[in-house]
Amino acid sequence: MPNKHAALKQIRKDRSRRQQNQALRSELSTLTKRLVGLLSGRKLDEAAALLRNVAKKYDHAATKGVIHRNTASRTKSRLTLRLNQAAAKS
Hints:
By secondary structure, the protein is mainly α.
């Protein structure tokens, strides 16, 4: 257990930041799964609207350092590709 007041405060800050980051990662995962579900259900209009929100969330997470910016870019690219392929099939 740390002895200094500043170290205790840092532990509290780390804990709250971890919870916030975990919540954001969970939200990203949930939104991605919802988007993939819409694509498999051929609901392309809803999927296109959701993709804009998902891309915005990924950019926000990358800006805050929750995920790496290349990870955000790669995921957005793959989701966009899946949407475009689904649109081309129908």
